[in-house]
Amino acid sequence: MEERKQLTTPLPTLLGTLTPEERQVLVRFKEALGGNFDDHTLGRFLRARKFNFDKAMEMFQNYLKWREEFQVDQIMSYEFPELEQVKTCYPHGFHKTDSHGRPIYIERIGALDLKRLFEITTEDRMLRYFVKSYETMLSITIPACAVAAGHPVEQSLTILDLGGSSMKLMSKKVYKFVQMASKIGQDYYPEMLGRMFIVNTPTLFSMAWKVIRPWLDERTQQKISTEGSKFQKKLLELAPADNVPQFLGGNCNCQVGCLMSNAGPWNDPLIQAQIGTANIRIAEVEPQRKLAAEEEKKE
């Protein structure tokens, strides 16, 4: 197959930026877990806990326990037929890639209608949908972006659009919803966020941000920048105009709507063929760990 031309600027990789001391912690961490997990996955958890071995181990063990209790290994078969309806009152989705080849994830929080959302679906179903989205991101979205870019891609660019929001952003129900969604990423899928842009922030947002910010760990806070209505220039420094929807100041106007289209390299059949067998989902690692543990007991 013809080699793809590198069109985006690669960012330093997690494993490529480890210090000798951090690499030693990674080796120790992997040995303690039985060596059945890939370095990048373990590195994400270590970085999330500043390479503190004990804290990272606690986080990872909680992650494994959660995977088993939540039955994450079966989540890819979960069906969410109400997605199209959900997006009419909670517009969100992946849309193309940024200047570093990272997938762009957009949420129009200002258009969120929680009352209607939970007339269409339930909190439990949304939670399972979020988890499946993270698993899809790990197993398909990011690997596809890496193939398309011609270099490693490990994280995403997230854009939260608060345009059109009002006092409803101050409601406890909205806080609870945002907290539920952010907790999954922080606790179980750390270091997947590369950069977050919060745009069209209303005057009252500073009050809401004071409440939301403490939910986020320090590293996540450092990746977030907030902008008012004049954000377009900064955003277009991060992503090509053709990859940014018109409602965010770009040129893209997908026929079915940018957040309905799911446009991106992950839909390219040639790319799908490359990642289909070469990429092993994180969800498939846990059964390997259990099998290794059982074999060890037999010995």
UniProtKB/TrEMBL annotation:
<dbReference type="InterPro" id="IPR001251">
    <property type="entry name" value="CRAL-TRIO_dom"/>
</dbReference>
<protein>
    <recommendedName>
        <fullName>CRAL-TRIO domain-containing protein</fullName>
    </recommendedName>
</protein>
<dbReference type="Pfam" id="PF03765">
    <property type="entry name" value="CRAL_TRIO_N"/>
</dbReference>
<dbReference type="InterPro" id="IPR036273">
    <property type="entry name" value="CRAL/TRIO_N_dom_sf"/>
</dbReference>
<feature type="domain" description="CRAL-TRIO">
    <location>
        <begin position="82"/>
        <end position="256"/>
    </location>
</feature>
<dbReference type="InterPro" id="IPR036865">
    <property type="entry name" value="CRAL-TRIO_dom_sf"/>
</dbReference>
<dbReference type="Pfam" id="PF00650">
    <property type="entry name" value="CRAL_TRIO"/>
</dbReference>
<dbReference type="InterPro" id="IPR011074">
    <property type="entry name" value="CRAL/TRIO_N_dom"/>
</dbReference>
<dbReference type="InterPro" id="IPR051026">
    <property type="entry name" value="PI/PC_transfer"/>
</dbReference>
